[in-house]
Amino acid sequence: MEYHSHAVVTEKKVTLLEHGQASELTDYLANEVRVALVYNGISHTVMLASPENLEEFAVGFTLSERIVSHINEIKGVELEFTPEGILIQVEITQRCFMELKQQRRNMAGRTGCGLCGVAQLEEAVKPVMRVDSDIRFDIQHLQNALEHIKSNQHHFKLTGATHAAMGLNLEGQVTAAYEDIGRHIALDKLIGAFSLRQAERPVAVLLTSRASFEMVQKAASANIQILFAMSAVTSLALELAEKSNITLIGFCRNGRATLYTHGYRLLGQNTARLAKAI
Predict the structure, then answer these.
(1) Distances (CA, A) of 85 to 37, 198, 225
(2) What values do phi and psi take at 203, rounded to 5?
(3) Are 179 and 163 in contact (CB under 8 A)?
(4) For the whole model, what pTM was predicted?
(5) Topology given in CATH for the domain delimited by 137-275
(6) What CA–CA distances, in Å, run from 33 to 20, 79, 180, 240?
(7) Is the pLDDT of residue 43 over 50?
(8) Pairing relationship of beta strands 42-49 and 137-138 according to DSSP bridges
(9) Please, how many CA atoms are within 13 Å of residue 155, restricted to the half-sphere of its CB?
(10) Is residue 116 part of an annotated ligand binding site?
(11) What does DSSP assign to residue 66?
(12) Band of the pLDDT at 270, cuts 50, 70, 90?
């Protein structure tokens, strides 16, 4: 969906320089739009995002950042379009809003001493949440998802500039896919989508990006038990996945993947032996 003048993709005439020759062609650019999240009238943060599925983004961000603990604590989401960008007005319960204000007050007051940086670092790392552990996924079905990545990346096919977060079922079929220029925003959109619709939580999530700390933290907040990433896994992501009881797999490409944590959820060839070693 495109929002008025905030199109997701821009078409532009460009000059191709190739083998010493210049030629004109049409290129497609992924648009970056300033998106401000405003809670109960107070601005919280501004991000650059792709201008679609922004209600899902707002809900997913609010849940994954633990501003609220349940979707029922989000009372409304409204979009306001301006020449400078898009304002997302999110109304949350008074209790959640007071807690958010207290967090902001604590952060604003921590300046002027050597210990303040330590306090701010502690604030950035949220308490570890452990996910449930009842799901089992046949690793052979990962190939099914990998074969359908391109068909679920409509904006990437045009621009080459977006990431995707895809929800998978037990057969490895893609049940939902959301794109954004920001990998963490794509995951927020996916989380917001199944939360808004009260849909069944994906068995696993496939990321077209790397799995960094914040991606694992968001997955834990949403009780996502299995996280596949097409690219690398960072050290902090691995550490948090271990503590959060998340099965983390990186470098997922045709016919191969690297298992990092909690392999007991994976079924298939030799995974029982691997699970014992990890």
Answers:
(1) 11, 29, 35
(2) -65, -35
(3) yes
(4) 0.90
(5) Cytidine Deaminase; domain 2 (3.40.140)
(6) 35, 13, 11, 31
(7) yes
(8) unpaired
(9) 25
(10) no
(11) T
(12) low
Q: Which helix (H) or strand (E) holds 37?
A: strand 33-39
pLDDT in tens, 89-143: 999 999 999 999 988 776 554 444 555 555 555 666 778 999 988 899 999 999 9
Say if residue 72 carries a ligand binding annotation: no
Residues pairing with 11 in the sheet:
28
139 Cβ partners below 8 Å, 6+ apart?
Answer: 257, 266, 267, 268, 269, 271
- Separation of alpha carbons 241 and 261, rounded Å: 7
Q: Cα–Cα distances in Å, from 106 out to 97, 100, 122, 123, 268? A: 14, 10, 12, 9, 49
Residues present in the chain in total: 278
Amino acid identity of residue 218, one-letter, is K
Residue 4: phi and psi, rounded to 5, are 50, -125
Q: Which residues are catalytic?
A: 113
Find out whether 256 is annotated in a ligand binding site.
yes
Maximal CA-CA distance, the chain: 64
In one-letter notation, the amino acid at residue 141 is H
Distance spanning both ends of the chain, measured CA to CA: 42
CA–CA separation, 46 and 180 (whole Å): 15
Residues 49/35, Cβ–Cβ less than 8 Å = yes
Whose tokens are 């079905």? That residue is 141
Quote the DSSP letter at residue 127.
Answer: P
Q: Is the dihedral of CA 140, 142, 147, 151 positive or negative?
A: positive
d(CA 62, CA 65): 6
- Is 252 marked within a binding site? yes
Question: What is the average per-residue pLDDT within 254-266?
Answer: 94
Q: Where are the alpha helices (DSSP H) in 45-115?
A: 54-64, 94-109
pLDDT digits (tens, 9 = 90+) for 211-231: 999 999 999 999 999 999 999
